[in-house]
Amino acid sequence: MTISVNGSKKKQVKKTFEELLNDLTGSNSEKVRYNAARILGEMGDSKAVEPLIDVLKHDKNGSVRLYAARALGELGDCKATTHLIESLREDRNVDVRVRAARALGRLGGAIVVEPLVEALNDENPQVCITATDALIEIGDVATDALIESLDHEKVNVRCDATRALGEIGNKKAVDKVINMLYDEWVNVRIYAVTSLGKLNDPKAVPALIDVMKNRNENELVRAGAAAALGVLRDTRALMPLRELIMEAEELGELEDTALKSFKKIMAANWQSIPGAAPVKKPATTTL
């Protein structure tokens, strides 16, 4: 198999798989090596896995290791998993750790959950965000470890774990996410109200109502709680939403969100709410 490598707009060099492997492992040019790694990942040939692992572990250039990690994620061979975990934990280059986290998310499996959860505590925020997204991509198998992370001492870990649990959507997380409504940090509470809407469990309705009604709570958290109630479509929220709207002298963001949620709940439940059924217009007759 050959593939075109753009040297310039005027010239295209076609290289075989073997030539690209030679570039990857033997070239003195970092640009040639990382381009070879990139293209080998795109080619999809599993024979490139072992050479790419070797480059990931031993190449001195961060850009080359970065593209090796990306290529290993694209190739999807589980033989690379332990080596990507090692890079995520130990590589000094932030971009390599980011790419390793992303690749692990694509490879999946229970073995990658613990190192990705550890990476939520990375010193670099981009690694934390990428690890969170990788855990979301992995899905249910990450739920238990993320629930445990809700008790972490660092606020960014609690934020990322709360967000991830909402995106994954496993209802076993509901009780713990409800507890996060009372976290001392407002960012955690914002993620908690959003995630409770996504988890879509009516068990959260009373706690969300309490948060929305709490005048001492941050306005963004209260508005998020109101929005989550609209997602849940539970009629228990109708009266508290109406009261919040009616008590306001003017409609701000909170009251506007409450009004939208009120309308959503009414629209979803009008058949079971007395007096909410739409009035039919009398039929007109033509002479």
- The CATH superfamily of the domain at 13-106 bears the name Leucine-rich Repeat Variant
Helix percentage range? 55-70%
Count of extended strands? 2
Number of helices: 16
The biggest sheet, with number of strands, parallel, antiparallel or mixed sense and barrel status, is:
2 strands, antiparallel
Query: Class of the domain at 13-106, according to the CATH hierarchy?
Result: Mainly Alpha
Write the H/E string, N to C: EEHHHHHHHHHHHHHHHH
> How do the strands of the widest beta sheet line up side by side?
1-2
Judged by helices, strands and strand pairing, the structural class is mainly alpha
Percentage of residues in strands: under 5%
Which residues sit in consecutive blocks of at least 5 with pLDDT less than 50?
Answer: none
In the CATH hierarchy, the architecture of the domain at 13-106 is: Alpha Horseshoe
Terminal Cα span:
80 Å
CATH topology of the domain at 13-106: Leucine-rich Repeat Variant
Shape: elongated
Radius of gyration over alpha carbons? 26 Å
Q: What is the typical, i.e. mean, pLDDT?
A: 92
